[in-house]
């Protein structure tokens, strides 16, 4: 949804009832009450521990409890130290995302092969030779193929993207009783009226001859879609094609423990997925006993207006954390805009009431006021120029664009400027020229400073920035023929290793670097 349309809609409802989360929330009270019933929670937890067999140990410092205004949530059962592992979780459901993939992969095992064929069972999905149902009496794909073909796909000789995109939800039919009971006990917000889910697409495109809109299967499928949309995580698998090129296949996974964490824009955890797609959740800062364990459902470096709209439209609640309430966002000014008066070059326009989307904005230097519609338009134009155009260019272009153009219309701390700097950091490689390395060094430090102001602790983005900073310091030392590394650089590498070391998507040379500098013996 366009920002202006979303903010208009929110602005209108929020004028009536500016502080209530109810306007975002479309789930029924009876469903919510059932979820927070103490007996239900005890049974749910017992089932969850049975499902987590092998991943759960009694020394893990979490429990499930009810927090007013949040529903169920996760609580620290003792003081948790920074960087301590809180829990491990495996996906109860996993599959493709509703996404445009640039390669075709086996719907079952994600393998990329030149010779992928349509499944011979008639489910209209691409599969590899090992997953095709004819390869063995039961392949990993057989059960889901059976479910899909029971609905009698039309046009069986053609690949069907709509079925691929619904596959994660369709896998809901393969859950055993234990898993089904857990999944059906997750919070599930029905979709907004303007949203076309994968079920609606299947029905609209009339993909199947034997799937009735009013039947039980569609009802169940809709429930699974709602559970996934409320709770699923994005994860990914790195897959090599036959020429050894890496491709990242983006997936969505339903991780129940992960999903039990409520949201805060200043969370106290970070998580990574290891190479087996096990979620590893760590404390990003010390968490005292009794405190709520919070995840962040939004983007770390988005401004408040963007976070509010994203959370309200996709997760159906309004966050009221201290970051959301502070017009300066803890002094980071991530959402702030440059004052439009030429005579006020230092001015920063901020919302007078960030929790209210329709609020007037005001310059903190000259006092100029501007209504939300104009502010939203400026943000949309800036977002389009940066996220749709500049981001796709090469590193040298982005660096020049940042210094010659972006600095004229956006603040250096603005979320779009920061996003572009992040892209430049990732694009400036070890062999780039010294001027680019120097810019990369500067951008990394600027963004680390924003994270420090937000009190974000040992978060994932910090790990990425520390790794990139170590690499850039190494490149600069090489270009200047200086000795390397010093204590500062080693500190960055140590932090990067602590945060990213267990990730299945960690930078390829991180283990080598960590071994070389003595942080790790055997991996
Ligand atoms: C992934 S679930 C979290 C667990 C959920 N509370 C439960 O009882 O299953 C996400 C939902 O929890 C609620 N929630 C999460 N964070 C919240 C917050 N900061 N304020 C209000 N509700 C929140 C919203 O209903 C949201 O759609």
From TrEMBL:
SMART domains: SET. Gene3D superfamilies: 1.10.220.160, 6.10.140.2220, SET domain. Pfam families: SET (PF00856). Residues 1-29 are annotated as: Disordered. Signal peptide: none annotated. InterPro entries: SET_dom (IPR001214), SET_dom_sf (IPR046341), SET_SmydA-8 (IPR053010). Residues 60-298 form the SET domain. PROSITE patterns: SET. PANTHER family: SET AND MYND DOMAIN CONTAINING, ARTHROPOD-SPECIFIC, MEMBER 4, ISOFORM A (PTHR46455), SET AND MYND DOMAIN CONTAINING, ARTHROPOD-SPECIFIC, MEMBER 9, ISOFORM A-RELATED (PTHR46455:SF3). This is SET domain-containing protein. It comes from Aedes albopictus (Asian tiger mosquito).
